C-alpha cells in the first residue's frame, strides 16, 4: 500500500533512518487502514532496548527510558513523541504480568499481541505485514484474538476487557463466538487484575461513541457483574448517546442506580479525588426539582448544583432521568445557576467577629436565598443577614 502520510513526518523518518528494519505497529496502522485519525504513532525495531536508545540518541533524538524493562523508550523530535519498542516474545505469563525476552522475529512479536487488527505493521515505504488476517477482520468489523483466544486470555486477563473496548469501536453486530466463549470461561481470572487497570479500561470503553452494545455483551458474558456489579442496564445511556454526551464520568453516573454507594465504588476502583467528587455531584439527584416547570425551583436547583462545582445542572438532570424521571427533559439544557452573592467579608464588615458564627450566619442566609428561588440580590441578602444579628 502507499506509505501512510503520518510516516512522512520528521520524527518517524528519523527513527526509520536510525533503526534499519523498524516498522510502525499497532493502533496507528489499524486506524489508518480503518480510515480513522491517527493520534499516536508506535514503532518497533529488531534491536534490544539499550541499542535502540543508543542509536536514537546518536541520531539527535531526545530519548526517555519510559518503559525500558518492557523494552520501550520514548523518542522525541520537534515535540513529537513516539514510543519505540524492541521486538519481544513472552517467557513467563501469569494472567497479569509477563516476563519478556528480546527477539528479531517479527512474527514472534506479532503472535504475542491481543487481536489480529492490532498485530499489523508497516515499513517506511508502505509495505504492510499482516500475519494473522487483520485487514480482513477490520473490513468485516470482527474483533478476533490472535491464535487461541483462551491462551491469549490466560496470558493477560485484561484482554477480556480490551475485547469489549475494541468491539465498541471496531466490531460489528455479530461478535466473534470463540472470543466470547473464552471470555465467559475466563471471568474468574478478572479478580486478579489491579483496580487501576480495570478502571482504565472501563473509562476507555465508556469513551467510545456508543458503548451500549459492548456493555450488553459484557453483562451477558458475566464480565460486567464481575468488574462493575453496581451497573444498571446499558439502555440508561440512551439519552446521553443521543445527545452526544461523551463524558466518561457522566456516562458512569447514568449507569449507576439510586442508592449506589459512590464512596465504596471510588475506593474499590481507586478513583482520583476529582473523579470521586464529580461522580458524587452527578449523582445528587435528590436536588432535582419535583416540578421541572417551576421557574423558582429550577433556579434553586441550578444554584445548588453550580455551588458544588463538579457538575452542570443539566448533567444532574440527565442522571435523574435515567432513574425513571422521564419528565425532566426540559432541564437537560439548564445552564449554571446564580452564585450566592455574599462572602465571609460581608459578615465581618457588619461587625461579626471572625469565627464559626460567620459561617453559620452565611449558611442561614444562603438557605433563605435558596428557599426564595435564588432570586434575591446582594442588598436583599445583606438586609436578611443584618436581621439575624
Automatic annotation (TrEMBL):
* Stretch forming the signal peptide: none
Q: Which domain of life is it from?
A: Bacteria
Coiled coil segments of this chain = none
Name the Gene Ontology molecular function terms of this record.
CCA tRNA nucleotidyltransferase activity; hydrolase activity; metal ion binding; nucleotide binding; poly(A) RNA polymerase activity; tRNA binding
Q: Which residues cross the membrane?
A: none
Annotated protein name in UniProt: Poly(A) polymerase/tRNA nucleotidyltransferase (CCA-adding enzyme)
Where the record annotates domain Poly A polymerase head, the positions are 23-144
Q: Where's the tRNA nucleotidyltransferase/poly(A) polymerase RNA and SrmB- binding domain?
A: 177-231
Amino acid at each position: 500500500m502507499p506509505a501512510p502520510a503520518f510516516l512522512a513526518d520528521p520524527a518517524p523518518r528519523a527513527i526509520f533512518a536510525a533503526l534499519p528494519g523498524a516498522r510502525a505497529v499497532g493502533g496507528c496502522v489499524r486506524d489508518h487502514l480503518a480510515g480513522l485519525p491517527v493520534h499516536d504513532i508506535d514503532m518497533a525495531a529488531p534491536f534490544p532496548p539499550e541499542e535502540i536508545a543508543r542509536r536514537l540518541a546518536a541520531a539527535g533524538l531526545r530519548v526517555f527510558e519510559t518503559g525500558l524493562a518492557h523494552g520501550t523508550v520514548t523518542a522525541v523530535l520537534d515535540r513529537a513523541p513516539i514510543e519505540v519498542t524492541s521486538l519481544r516474545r513472552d517467557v513467563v505469563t501469569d494472567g497479569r504480568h509477563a516476563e519478556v525476552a528480546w527477539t528479531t522475529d517479527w512474527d514472534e512479536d506479532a503472535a504475542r499481541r491481543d487481536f489480529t487488527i492490532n498485530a499489523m505493521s508497516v515499513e517506511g515505504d508502505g509495505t504492510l505485514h499482516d500475519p494473522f488476517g487483520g485487514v480482513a477482520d477490520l473490513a468485516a468489523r470482527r474483533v478476533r484474538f490472535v491464535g487461541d483466544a483462551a491462551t491469549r486470555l490466560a496470558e493477560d486477563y485484561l484482554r477480556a476487557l480490551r475485547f469489549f473496548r475494541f468491539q465498541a469501536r471496531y466490531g460489528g453486530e455479530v461478535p466473534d463466538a470463540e472470543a466470547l466463549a473464552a471470555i465467559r470461561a475466563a471471568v474468574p481470572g478478572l479478580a486478579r487484575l489491579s483496580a487501576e487497570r480495570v478502571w482504565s479500561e472501563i473509562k476507555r470503553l465508556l469513551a467510545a461513541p456508543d458503548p451500549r452494545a459492548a456493555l450488553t455483551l459484557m453483562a451477558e458474558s458475566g464480565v460486567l457483574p464481575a468488574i462493575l456489579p453496581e451497573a444498571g442496564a446499558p439502555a440508561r445511556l440512551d439519552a446521553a448517546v443521543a445527545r452526544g454526551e461523551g463524558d466518561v464520568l457522566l456516562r458512569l453516573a447514568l449507569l449507576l442506580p439510586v442508592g449506589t454507594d459512590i464512596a465504596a465504588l471510588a475506593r474499590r476502583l481507586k478513583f482520583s479525588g476529582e473523579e470521586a467528587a464529580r461522580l458524587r455531584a452527578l449523582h445528587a439527584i435528590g436536588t432535582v426539582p419535583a416540578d421541572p416547570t417551576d421557574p423558582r425551583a429550577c433556579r434553586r436547583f441550578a444554584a445548588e448544583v453550580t455551588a458544588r462545582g463538579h457538575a452542570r445542572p443539566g448533567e444532574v438532570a440527565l442522571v435523574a432521568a435515567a432513574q425513571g424521571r422521564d419528565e425532566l427533559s426540559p432541564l437537560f439544557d439548564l445552564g449554571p445557576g446564580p452564585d450566592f452573592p455574599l462572602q465571609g467579608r460581608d459578615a465581618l464588615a457588619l461587625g461579626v467577629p471572625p469565627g464559626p458564627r460567620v459561617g453559620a450566619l452565611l449558611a442561614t442566609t444562603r438557605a433563605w436565598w435558596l428557599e426564595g428561588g435564588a432570586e434575591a440580590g446582594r442588598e436583599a441578602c445583606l438586609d436578611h443577614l443584618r436581621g439575624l444579628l
